[in-house]
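Backbones bend. Our protein:
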Amino acid sequence: MSAVDPLLSRRPWHDLPPGLAPLLRARLPEITTEMVQAIRREVRGYRQPIGSAVAQDLAEAVRLAATQFTELVEEPDGPQQHYVPRFRRLGRLEYLSGRGMDGLQAAYRIGARVACRRYVDVARDAAFSGEIAVPLSEAVLTHIHALAEESVAGFEEARAGAADEVLRTRRLLAARLLERHRDPLAEPLPDLARRAAWPLPERVRCAVLPASADVSVVDEDVLRVSRGGELHLVVPGGGLLSALQGSDAAVGPSVALDEAWVSLHCARLGLRLGRLRAEDHLADVHLLHGAPIGDLLAHQVLDPLRALPPGKAARLTDTLEALLASGGRTAPEVAAALGIHPQTARNRLRQLAALYGEKLGDPAFRFDAQLALRTRSVRRSLLS
C-alpha cells in the first residue's frame, strides 16, 4: 500500500486461516451484489441507473475491495501496492465531480458492515470456530480504513494539483448552477461558492455566446463555463451586462438563483429565434419550446381548411389570424390588418363562419387557435 503501510502489520489476516480464502472467493459475486445494493439503498447519490458511470464505478470499487480482502486472507504478506491507484482514483473522481468525501466514506462504512456479517456467515457455514468472528471483523475494519485513507489521499492530491483552484471552482460552480437536476452527493452550493470566492446572490441572469467570444471586458464576478461549443455566463444580481451591448450574446431573464437553468434555457431559445434579449419575447420563447405540440394543435385548428386549394386555405388562415387579433372582430378591422377591401374581408369571414360555425365565438377555441397560429409564425421565423 502506501510508504507507511496503513494495513500496519497486517496482523488481523495472520490470525485468519488461509483456507477461508477460497470459500470467500466462491461467494464474492453474491456478497458484492448485496454490498452494492445496500450502498445504493442508503446513500442517495449512488442511486443512479445501473448502466451509469457512477453505478459502474461503484460496482467495480466494491469488487476490487472484496477481491483484495480475499487475497490478504490467502496471503497476508502478499504485494498490495497495485491496488493503491485504483482507490486513490475514487477520491480524485469525487473531487473532480465537485463532491465531498462524505458519500464515499458512507459507502465504505456500509460495505464494511455487510462484509463483516456475510464473511462471518461464510466462516460459520464452513464450521470454523465462532472465535473467528473477532479477527475477521477486525480485518474488515482495518481494510476499509486503509481504503478510505487511500481515497482521501487521492481527493487531496486532486485538490492540491489544481492549477488555478478559484478559476476551476468557479467553472464548476457555474456548471452546477446551470444544472436542472443536481447531484445529491455534490458539495453543498454554499461550500462550493465559498471556495470559489463568489458570494451566492439571490438572483442571476444568464447569457449565451459563441465559445470563441472575447469576454475579457466582462466583470470578474461573472461566472463562465464552456459547454457544447457555447460560452455560458452567470451574472450575479440579475443585472444586464453593459459589456455585452451590441454583441451577439443572447441574454436570459433575471431569475432566482435556483432557476439559473431557466434563464439559460430562455437565452438559448432566444438565440435560435434571433431574439437576443429573451425576456422581451418570453411568449415566443415559450412557444418555441413547445413547438412540436403547437404543430399538433395547429393541425387540429386548421383541419377545416385542409380540403381547400392551397391559395384559398392560406388566405383564410391569414384572415382567421387577423380576426382573432382584432378587438371588435369586424370586417373593417380585419380588412385594415390584411390591407384588403372591407367587402373582401366580409366574404372571407362568411367563408370562415361556414367552415367553423359557432367555434369562432368559443373562447376556448379562440385561445387554441391563437396559440396554434402564433406557434406557426414562430416556427416560420426560424426558416426566414
Notes: The beta strands are 203-210, 223-227, 230-236, 250-251, 255-256.
